[in-house]
Design a protein that fits this description.
Blueprint: E1 6-10, H1 14-25, E2 29-34, E3 45-49, H2 55-62, E4 67-70, H3 79-97, E5 100-105, H4 129-146, E6 151-156, E7 159-161, H5 175-180, E8 183-187, E9 193-194, E10 196-198, H6 199-211, E11 219-221, E12 228-229, H7 230-241, E13 246-250, H8 261-267, H9 283-289, H10 296-314
Parallel strand pairs: 1-2, 1-4, 2-3, 4-5, 5-6, 6-11, 7-10, 8-13
Antiparallel strand pairs: 9-12
GO molecular function, one term: aldehyde dehydrogenase (NAD+) activity
Pfam families: Epimerase
GO cellular component, one term: cytoplasm
């Protein structure tokens, strides 16, 4: 693959923005597309306004791309209505333009696993509405690849953590409270193992899939360090900041931290993720492409540093 080939990232949330920066550092020409076309932009990246809700809009957004990365998301309560249409537009665009498609995916299609380790061979047994929707989208992506309509690969991530990540159970509900001595919130059983994927591992994994067409046509788990219990992670944070956390554990979904009533009402069907172990194995991508996940200890150091700066900026 020529380093000058255009890589287009759709969506400028933490995953899309981090990915765009990673691709630029690897020497690729990068276009970052979102609905505003404004805001902080990684070095070496061109940011443009675009709407991928229609095939015409998506085609315009990806014009000239060799690889397209679908990192678009919408408000949680709108996903079931909006995401299938976005998929149809993006798939239609890459089919017409001839670009490869790398899709950022979730663990939702697996549904409840009763604590069993999730690999790429785990059955898709979702019973939640969002899980079934995601599974249906993924089946369509893989069908498009099998049928030769598009070249597609999917990268699944566990819950995000890392610099720039706010809307995660290991994000805005934890680090601001830890650093200011105020409430830190956790969900469900904090003595269960839970995988978290560093947002920079999300970016590195997707970029690597974008650079390796031999990985197409399947699901890959993005590089993720070994799962820890939430209690262990909180204890690591306590050691790093030198003071105990004021932790509140919620046994059922209710609004907290960055998550309002609308979000939590929509998230309730996925609360099983905090009442059974959530362990994702990423051995396959690590072995196939030689990617090593960032150690969780390093992730916590870097995330605390980012939140210190974030909180300082918020005060000015």
């Amino acid at each position: 693959m020529n380093a000058a080939d255009l890589h287009v990232v759709l969506g400028s949330g933490p995953a899309g923005s981090t990915l765009a920066g990673e691709l630029a550092r690897r020497g690729h020409a990068v276009r970052l597309v979102d609905r505003s076309g404004t805001g902080a932009t990684p070095d070496g990246v061109t940011r443009v306004k675009g709407d991928v809700g229609t095939v015409e809009g998506a085609r315009a957004a990806i014009k000239g791309a060799v690889v397209v990365y679908h990192c678009v998301n919408v408000a949680y309560h709108l996903q079931i209505d909006a995401m299938p249409g976005i998929q149809q537009a993006v798939l239609g665009a890459v089919e017409t333009e001839g670009a490869r498609l790398v899709v950022l995916d979730t663990l939702y299609p697996y549904g409840e696993t009763h604590g069993r380790v999730m690999t790429e061979d785990t059955p898709w047994s979702a019973t939640s509405a969002k899980g079934r929707m995601r599974a249906a989208l993924d089946e369509e992506y893989l069908a498009a690849h099998r049928e030769g309509r598009a070249r597609v690969v999917l990268g699944r991530s566990a819950d995000f953590v890392g610099p720039g990540v706010l809307n995660s159970t290991l994000g805005g509900a934890v680090f601001p409270g830890a650093l200011t001595g105020t409430e830190v919130l956790a969900l469900g059983d904090i003595d269960l193992l839970h995988s978290y994927t560093d947002i920079r591992n999300v970016a590195a994994g997707l970029a690597t899939l974008g650079e390796h067409p031999d990985g197409d046509g399947r699901v890959w788990h993005l590089p993720t360090d070994a799962a820890r219990t939430t209690r262990e992670i909180f204890q690591q944070i306590e050691r790093k900041i030198g003071q105990p956390l004021k932790t509140t554990v919620m046994s059922e979904p209710r609004p907290f931290g960055p998550f309002d009533e609308v979000f939590m009402g929509s998230y309730a069907e996925l609360f099983y993720q905090h009442t059974e172990a959530q362990v994702m194995d990423s051995t396959a991508i690590q072995d196939a492409f030689g990617i090593k996940p960032i150690a969780l200890d390093t992730t916590l150091d870097d995330t605390l540093a980012w939140y210190r700066s974030f909180l300082a900026r918020a005060q000015h």
